[in-house]
Protein 1
Amino acid sequence: MNNARPQLKLKPLKRRRRPAISEPTRDKLLDVAGRIFADRGYRAATIREICIAARANVAAVNYHFGDKLGLYTMVVQQSMQAAELEGIRSALDQLAPPEDILRAVIRARLNSICRRDRPDWHFRILVHELAQPTPALRRLISKIGRPLFQRLLELIGGMIGLPPDDDKTRFCAFSVMGQILVFVLANPLLEAVWPDLKMTPEQLDRIAYHIADFSLSYIRQFRSNPSAHSANGTTPATPSRASK
Amino acid sequence: MNNARPQLKLKPLKRRRRPAISEPTRDKLLDVAGRIFADRGYRAATIREICIAARANVAAVNYHFGDKLGLYTMVVQQSMQAAELEGIRSALDQLAPPEDILRAVIRARLNSICRRDRPDWHFRILVHELAQPTPALRRLISKIGRPLFQRLLELIGGMIGLPPDDDKTRFCAFSVMGQILVFVLANPLLEAVWPDLKMTPEQLDRIAYHIADFSLSYIRQFRSNPSAHSANGTTPATPSRASK
DNA sequence: CTGTGTTTCATACTGATGTTTGAATATGAA
DNA sequence: TTCATATTCAAACATCAGTATGAAACACAG
């Protein structure tokens, strides 16, 4: 057994070089880890990579957060209070005609996805969670997903004159949500299929406007004539076109 | 440096040796690896887990496929010829009214997602690829994603009277695609938000029917009165936004 | 200054994973 | 049989990741 541990010979250098100006290591780790976790996912992201990017020691994560999962939990918990979500919530809570609220929600959600100043790493974490769930997914859904969806159900239910827990209301809510989420979840597909699409604010506005139009077309039509749609109880028989 | 491929003799059948499924190790590995890769993703899936499940030696993967990526490539390549895709292609190619084709495509795609006999591991691989792309994603997109989307563009473009590469056509195609994909990509979200939703064939039909109705409402409306909507889209002619 | 508690650091340990290797076994032909 | 090839196997190797540890560096009260 050689317990002889090589003592450090000499002082390497003054590390007061870049003290990361008054930013505590803990905060820096949280910031860097957020982006790296969002980029690689929980499992593929390594503590060493995070610590190098944060100019911290490998042991810093264990010291400040216990272990890797502790850091990740903090990152997710922090991302749940992001400003982007507040935009969506306030859009849902405002007092306005339902159609305006729906437009505002769609736009807020899309804006939160692709911002130029802040990267969209909050949502990229969700993408990884959907592919490979960790214990954080339950909290993400119960704290964010379910409440927001519940409000969307109430909004849409009110617009089509059905209770929030009606199947039709839920279908419509998923239709709206799907149109939005595809721009986050299927981003590589989007880029491959539409290479020259630049996610400028103007482009995002156009997309949001389209999604709202696309959705409102059906919602208005359903409200004015619900019986024509709710007929699809079990088997849709032949897909005969409605009167043109 | 080893042989990249075992020799090929035309002797596929030789099961008299072992009654316990003397399926060649190579095929068994492919089969098992498909499910495990779809479940855990490329990185999280381990060769040992695959080999144990396939009752093969750890070295079997390296012997038959060179390395882990070689096995994964074969799995993806094999999944691209799955029967599910053929259903979508044939739905797109059939000679029928455009609205019927759209309904058939939506339904085929949804059916391919959740089947009771066969698990949906082909699409679950796509979910992982979207979260953490591997070299296989490029092939997946160029071989499957882009051609299918191109046909969808032509179909919808024909329905709304715009060229396939018009922005409005693409927006509509994404609206349709998003409504479908959300049921695959956001499955955990779906289950949490709608726990008592059973993916029976009847339920899938109802969903497909709804998505088609939801989408056709806008498409029909746009076709009958395009000018009311194009004020926001950049039709190649007039990019004027400020309508005063 | 000294002492004490906190933070950072270099380093080592443990386990897991992809890969290699060389021997052992099976297979089929001369 | 004997030989050549194909395949399987157990074991080892190399690397990397998460974690642990003890000392050094720091901050600050006394």
Protein 2
Amino acid sequence: MKAPTLADVARRAGVSYATADRVVNARGGVADARADRVRQAIADLGYVRNVAAANLSQGRVYRFVFVIPTGTNAFFLHLRMILGAVAPRLRLERTELRIEDVAAFDAPSLVAVLRALALSPPDGIALVGIDSPEVAAAVADLTAAGVAVVTLVSDMPDSARHAYVGIDNCSAGRTAARLMGLAHARGPGRVLPVLGSLSARDHRERLAGFRAILAQDFPQIALLPEFEGRDRAELVEQAVERLFDRGEAISGIYSLGAGNSGLARALARFEGTDRRPVVIVHELTPRTREALGSGNFDVVIDQRPGAEIALALATMRQISDRLPAAPIRPIIPAIIFQDNMPEPEDSALPEAAGLDHTTAPPGRQGGLT
Amino acid sequence: MKAPTLADVARRAGVSYATADRVVNARGGVADARADRVRQAIADLGYVRNVAAANLSQGRVYRFVFVIPTGTNAFFLHLRMILGAVAPRLRLERTELRIEDVAAFDAPSLVAVLRALALSPPDGIALVGIDSPEVAAAVADLTAAGVAVVTLVSDMPDSARHAYVGIDNCSAGRTAARLMGLAHARGPGRVLPVLGSLSARDHRERLAGFRAILAQDFPQIALLPEFEGRDRAELVEQAVERLFDRGEAISGIYSLGAGNSGLARALARFEGTDRRPVVIVHELTPRTREALGSGNFDVVIDQRPGAEIALALATMRQISDRLPAAPIRPIIPAIIFQDNMPEPEDSALPEAAGLDHTTAPPGRQGGLT
DNA sequence: GCCAAAATGATTGACGTCTATCAATTCCAT
DNA sequence: ATGGAATTGATAGACGTCAATCATTTTGGC
């Protein structure tokens, strides 16, 4: 009735414990015939190695690295903040977190970081994907070396990464289009897409999804040419200002990258009027929160970085533990209006929960006499 | 540099290992002065008991029970399905799941189930809350007996439950109102709320949130009296049919409970016309999926039962492990249009991930020779 | 049939906690 | 002071795995 141990496997396979151990831990030096018998016994018994016992025996510590772009991008700053907040808690679970900096949108420097990490490989690496053969090659080397590699936020489907943790960006773009269409009700309009860089897969996919639904279901809405703002607030601000100054009739803005504080500034001119365009942006940050609250933005599509980090960690741990892989589903983004803003994630006061379970409850055996 | 063990604590407190053990496991028979010294040493060293080692030593199996309402309610059927799907995987992690049936909206039978469970108490219980003093009393007895109790879907804030796992229903109602308002653009309208029962806290809260935002931001939308459909499709269908037959001008329907297949049938009469009201419902089920896809519903607010189950399990495990309680944040509901429907959760084919990590990768020590 | 190389078996000591038992000490009321 | 109770200490085995060592057997080439 209880779970089979490796000793059971060895017995069933008719080999010694030592041989079974050599097979499951890939130590080599086992004849094929024997190894197959062990594998068969594992399958027959449904043996799953007891990770707790394994970790206990070798005093294992999980070492995970998050490679995060530098710069003033509010989303990545938020990501760093959350990582900093969960790190102490994770240490209790024998997990060490490290953040490696990398220049944004920069394949060569990402490759350099990955190559450096390969020298003393951690157990897992989470990185923001960049479409580039060199990065893919570095990833392949890491996975070959037994490192769990997970792409975060933006995927690299053609690489050897074990899993992608993030939202379905195409679907997010379609959702934005649907909301934009809803808000235009039955009237016509002209919509401006603002993005960071077409070289980023996530931005490309969002734009494609947005376009597809607008074209399909909302023919009365015209699409202006997209603006590439490199995720930099001042560039976005200038560009939007210029359009307004030229008197362009803009009924909606879909900002699918970062740099939204610039957008908020550019929209200040509509304060108090009812002529502000419908504004849909990505990522809940202090700035976008504020703009939502004050009624300057309408919708925020948030990829829930906290959930992403949790899933990335769980995935890396699962791969490191060599457990049968659970299917990874995309993160479901939160669609946020001024009415359903969640608490900021840094308001995580452990004791605020008001409960402390660190001493045994009065269970079967009595307390004091 | 490594984590302190209980032996370290004992040494620091100047007591024997046995005494320290008696303190952390509440076995009793320790003089106050000594116990305090042990507790002080624990605090000084930041000792956290090694759960893996503890579970290993006693061959521990977590026993968790989900108490789920019976009936044809599609949401709860879905919840049961997901529980069935995760159960085998959890068994690998020494966790046993059981489902207990209970009549819906029925406090006495919930109390009976809880009392029965108390006879051989599991490690954790997740239940759908019902506001009733008797239920609260039963919950208090369970928590006093050391059982981790979590409310699911609908909370009981005044009970002794350890945590609530579910969405912020008030916020969800506000979100529905915002979407309804958006879809009404600047035109007037009349909106019908359909709910299961005002005795259910979650339904009450959604309705309150919905009302508040409509009143505050959309004065041009009139609110019809709400209909209580007991979550039963045929009742909902009849009631809505009757209203339409009477020629009521209805521009929007907010269905905040179950029974949406009845609603979909009642809306069939608008097929092909553009006079269908705006329809916002809760919970993604096969029926609401279909209605979204065919364009009969506009928005589904889904409380993501899979995420709820995962969080409930994690919470119960954490409480059972007597770890410092992490703050529990509400589940963020998914807002779903026809454009961003996620894969059904039962499409979870473990092997579909295409990866199997059950054998050691070629790590530090070489493979075959 | 011999030798080296390869494969296999047997065994042991961690890892940190829990449970249990038994011996030794302290405390307190009389 | 004495006896009984309460408290404390010491220790050992179990849990399942990993890493390591050493002894033994089998294999393959000649």
Protein 3
Amino acid sequence: MIFTVRQDQLQVLLIERGNTPYLGQSALPGGFVRDGETLDEAALRELSEETGLDGRTLHLEQLHAYSDPDRDPRGRVITVAYLALGPDLPLPVAGTDATAARWEPVSSALSDDTSLAFDHTAILRDGLERARSQLEHTTVAAAFCPEPFTVGDLRRIYEAVWGFNLDPSNFRRKVTRTEGFLEPTGERRFSETGRPAALYHRGVASLLIPPLLRSGEVSS
Amino acid sequence: MIFTVRQDQLQVLLIERGNTPYLGQSALPGGFVRDGETLDEAALRELSEETGLDGRTLHLEQLHAYSDPDRDPRGRVITVAYLALGPDLPLPVAGTDATAARWEPVSSALSDDTSLAFDHTAILRDGLERARSQLEHTTVAAAFCPEPFTVGDLRRIYEAVWGFNLDPSNFRRKVTRTEGFLEPTGERRFSETGRPAALYHRGVASLLIPPLLRSGEVSS
DNA sequence: GAAATAGTGTCTCTAAGACAGTATATA
DNA sequence: TATATACTGTCTTAGAGACACTATTTC
């Protein structure tokens, strides 16, 4: 399950299935573990096969194992789901076995008029919740930002993943005062309008202590 | 991986292996998934086979999948580890295939002079960290307490799992003011010494918001 | 009475929420 | 100039840490 943020939206990579079952339906990309390969290695390999990306530069973590005996009509398949987070990723490369891969907003992939293959809707729901929770306790949000990035870029990541707006002032205070979250580059970025923003690289810290809790789910 | 708290110590159920490989060494209990069974069901079944306990009354959660191709010398075995938490559990029933099952303090099972079979030391480390983290964000600590229990009982659970002491006064304020953590029974417990303590049942809440963070790892 | 544990109250400090105000760019 | 975004500062409040103090039991 590969998440990115594009156009201020959390999006997920979906493929159109080219085989039965669920022919023509959307699904999360995936594949089978090979002999002599760990699950992490298999996830990295599938990731690079689907997107052409070097997964070692992305955030990748194991999510959960799904094991309902009837979840795959072909037979007994246990899936160990992985979650990958990356900055505004390119469209998937052609020529893979993933026919018609595309980015889809997570909100629309989870909406009632979309039905994913297998139990992938439930997996996607779990992945979304994991991503939202990770933003509270870790600095992975920076993994969504192409470097270098501004505090505003980072805030828009949080807003896209959590689905509500944050106070820019308080958000800035939190992330700039968290040791090791942001490393200033000394540069600034000029955009069409407004004051130029300071640019940062990802810092070395991986945990947010104290956490940045999503307590204010009110504003649009 | 079955955790309990006995004698103010976090303990884990270990078995003595009766077969090669790792014959005679200690290991976490486990087994193979059967056809037509989910992983959750398999975990519950193994739990009841090993301890005679009805797992539905315990807290049970999936931890992580372990997949190093060389982790089992007999061949390719992927393990999905589960974590079960329960109140001061009875000693495991005899007559199962678990030869010589016993409770062992987690600290000693993780000490340098103990070596568990397979990669079970790493699994145990992950399980301990998960349990410690769960105590911060959820009310599962109550799953370790035989009902009814006192605020002091609950505090000693935290102290056993986290490995350091908490301020009794601040701990009481936190758990009693968290809606749905404790449900007063109106009864009191008289012990050999000291003022009798009010007794509680587990409440309906499962999340601790805000969390009870282990920030003060200082006192003995 | 002492000793031990249960429980209350209070002071302080950190950090988050709300929000006013200033700074610096483009059109 | 207006507008938009970046950034600073300040007031208030929630909640945690430290810790003094009171309450109720057994010996």
